[in-house]
Recover the amino acids of this structure.
């Protein structure tokens, strides 16, 4: 629910203020936050020393 609410808020504010830089900044922060969540979860679940970068392909995240 949090990512949906945040992205909707970003869209509304960016549209109201016509601020493309704000959209890019917030999108990067959301991607960074999501990546940190995934990495944390992966560390807890993956055994044998395989890290999240080896388990997940982050090349598609801007």
């Amino acid at each position: 629910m949090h990512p949906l609410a945040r992205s909707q808020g970003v869209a509304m504010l960016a549209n109201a203020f016509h601020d493309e830089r704000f959209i890019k900044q917030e999108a990067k922060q959301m991607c960074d936050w999501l990546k940190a969540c995934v990495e944390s979860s992966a560390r807890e679940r993956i055994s044998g020393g395989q890290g999240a970068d080896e388990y997940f392909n982050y090349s598609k995240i801007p």
User: Anything to note?
Assistant: The radius of gyration is 15 Å. The mean pLDDT is 79. The chain has three helices and no strands. Residues 20-45 form the longest helix (26 residues).
